[in-house]
Amino acid sequence: MKLLVQGPSGIRASVTLGVANALQELKTPPTSYFIKKALDLKGGSQKPGHQAAGQLSLKHVLEIATVTARPIPLTSILFRF
Q1: Residue 4 pairs with which residues in a beta bridge?
Q2: Residue 33: CB atoms within 10 Å
Q3: Are strands 2-6 and 23-27 parallel, antiparallel or unpaired?
Q4: Which pTM value belongs to this model?
Q5: Residue 12's beta-bridge partner residues?
Q6: Are 34 and 11 in contact (CB under 8 A)?
Q7: Higher confidence at residue 21 or residue 51?
Q8: Residue 13's closest CA among 58, 63, 56?
Q9: Could you write out the three-class secondary structure of 17-81?
Q10: Residue 58, pLDDT above cutoff 60
Q11: Domain ranges of the chain
Q12: Which pLDDT tens digit goes with each residue over 25-54?
């Protein structure tokens, strides 16, 4: 199932949901895709590591981090009662 998701600052992403063994898997584009969209770039810097292609606001950084964050598997969490 494909969904089109739009964040508060207008960044759009195509999200693919697939079902495998009764579990839903969420696939998102790489982080560089969201950075290019936020900066309205067609490509990266001509001299990576030496020249900046643009500046991201903290709002965009947090939104990209939220969208691309991977969920923590519940098997790695220790519950104590």
Answers
A1: 14
A2: 15
A3: unpaired
A4: 0.53
A5: 6
A6: yes
A7: 51
A8: 63
A9: EEEECCEEEEECCCHHHHHHHHHCCCCCCCCCCCCCCCCCCHHHHHHHHHHHCCCCCHHHCCCCC
A10: yes
A11: 2-44+53-76
A12: 557 788 888 989 999 988 877 888 888 888
